Amino acid sequence: MERRTIGAAALAVGAVGLGCMPMSWAYSSSRQRGEESVRAVHRALDLGSTLLDTADMYGPFTNELLVGRVLKERRQDAFVSTKVGLLVGEQHIVANGRPGYVKRACDASLRRLQTDVIDLYQLHRADPEVPVEETWGAMAELVRAGKVRALGLCAMGARGGRRFGTRLHDATIRQLQRVQQVFPVSAVQAELSVWSPEALEALLPWCEARGIGFLAAMPLGNGFLTGTLTPGQGFEPDDVRARHPRFTAEMMASNQPIVAGLRRVAARHGEGITPAQVALAWVLAQGPHVVALPGTKQERWVTENAGAEGLRLTAQDLAEVADGPGAQGSWD
Fold this sequence. Notes:
Oligomer: single chain
Strand content: 15-25%
Strand order of the largest sheet: 3-4-5-8-9-10-11-12
Shape: globular
Largest sheet: 8 strands, parallel
């Protein structure tokens, strides 16, 4: 698989990584099977999808434990990324960016991951009660201590700023400008897909201009862009899509033209090419510093996703996708 670099440290990873969250968090719990997920992680590493993206809050904690089972055997094959800054309670999630907590959380993640160093340590969310510079400074101390190789930031999720005439990621860029003064940012993780292209407006160009890697989260639109979901099929209550405005039966039906466009492009590239692979290839075409992080817990989808790296979309393909219908419904 093609290798892409993250940040000034030129950390090399496969162009398509593996989002491990669905293995133990946010998606149908009845379909979460540990052994199947472990096989999926092994398959990803076999195919060169070296970036394994997890977080201490996924589970919570169980996702890191699962990834750790694989790292214990194959640490040299993997680039491990985990996150800090969010705590999961009963029916709520809170931020904690206190320096002492960050250092304790890192030690706990290292134990669960069964490794002595985290390749990329990401700030999941800034704590509104702690200056982000203080949190970032504690993370930088972890790099100097040899526990972490590089630092990353997850984009803020709030979209409300649009109502006041600001761009979606303006707040994240301001945050990045602040932490860059403390210690270099190697990567930014944010949603980017055919049906959520907002990062192209300002955030991705900001990263590209500074040599910062961009980790494209949810590049398959929470599974919608795979073309395997049926409008009105329903989701389990603990599945994030059960509350997502784009996954109502009406919105899923309204957004089918997006999938149809991906199918048309796939058909031009021959038998066996899927809408999901076109969607991932579109993400990868946005720049050499972009790494796609599709999430899955099954070997067959890992294999399909990895195959997208070899798909080269033409100028016609890219124009057709760009000119296609925008998604209806959002998090707003």
